[in-house]
Amino acid sequence: MTSTDNMAKGTTDKPGGGRGGENMKKNQKTIVFLHPDLGIGGAERLVVDAAVGLQRRGCKVVIFTSHCDPGHCFDEARDGTLDVRVRGNTIVPPSILGRFSILCAILRQIHLILSITIFSSELSEINPSGFFIDQLSAGLPLLSLLRPQTPIFFYCHFPDLLLVQNRNSSLFKRLYRVPFDALEQWSMGFATSTAVNSNFTKSIVAKTWPGYPADTLKIVYPCINTSLPSPDKETEPIKWGGQSEKSIILSINRFERKKNIALAIRAFALLPGPTRQKSKLVVAGGYDPRVHENVSYHADLAGLCEKLGLKSATVKTVVSALNSSIEDVDVLFLLSVPNALKEILLKSARLLVYTPEEEHFGIVPLEAMLRGVPVLAADSGGPLETVVEGRTGWLRPGEPEKWMEVMERVVDRMGEGELKKMGEEGKRRVRENFAETEMARQLEEIFEEVEGVDTKGAGILGLALVILAGIMGVIGVGVGLWLVKTPAERL
Fold first, then answer.
1. Is residue 396 scored above 90 in pLDDT?
2. Cβ-contact 190, 138 below 8 angstroms
3. What is the mean pLDDT of residues 435-464?
4. Which end of the chain is less congested by CB atoms within 10 angstroms, N or C?
């Protein structure tokens, strides 16, 4: 795919879909999204849902991204529902020798902005009413300089400097990050309006950047599509080897160490023998064989199962997942499950375990609750705002014994009536508080509030910041290249 290709041509017969919707308002807003990599993840799911929601409310939506693989993106990004355009993907790679990811991401964002403003008239022809930018704020000063009359809305999922923080990093690597961390805080100030995904993230922003006016941050919760057909009508429970007596305890997360999947395995291993024999822990999630952490963490988890005396198996397809040969395994690893299989898993699960601690939000608990599955989650971060203790699930500290107690209760001591009641409460909570219609309404209100407001810091200050960012980028490259050398080479 070249930088001039469109992921989707945007022509669709759906009302309000793509660029040819029949039911658009006469004075419709045109919202342009800028997102680094429109793949598969929580941030990407939010962007897609926000775009679809605004489109359904009569807005015209165009998404510009530096990368979108048709084989690794959400359906709406490739089936014509959304107008997705790949730009700024021809000069700067995502990384250099596996390093400099943040520097490359910033340069790719700047390249994307220049591609649609300076190198072509594409953005002028669209004439956006507002910008929706998330994840990366470095390009805001440049955008504010080039389009001072167009308000910018920035969505902060979580401070990037905390997402990449590693206590084991060398002093030099921490120094390498300093200019980029400073740029993150400073560039966010160029947004006309900024929102975060939870009260938890708002509190973290206040602690991370004491000088940032955190009280001005809006809270816009991520959403899920509650208008999908009922899973009860679309799927059937999994029958392992033709039998359905196994109680499925389900974990859905990317294979990353910060997701703490090992907690679920350790807790499952503590279950009494009879309870464990009639249960199965299914660990499903995002897995990319090109990502070293995905590969190594999956291997670590499989090794942990062996150490704890649990029989495990790893499968990659729906057919393999339903094969009778895996009926007797204790822990089943499913790598990068497609939506159809995820729906089957959620339909079949008796309990969803969500193990990350201090997760800034977490969309998986909402997906489970919408389908009537109780949730066991860590008692920190976003789940504190989504899961209601004793009503839609349970919140527990990261101690395997505490998690085992809930697992045992759900499998052995909760009747179907009690589970159904909790499931209905979960469905109701999601539909009332986290529906895609609510997020779209909030976003449209924000764009109405900032309509006609110039971007902050346009003009000479914006230019100065862009120049400063360039200087810091050069410094970052120098420090980074120095880090690649061995200690002997540095002398």
1. yes
2. no
3. 76
4. C
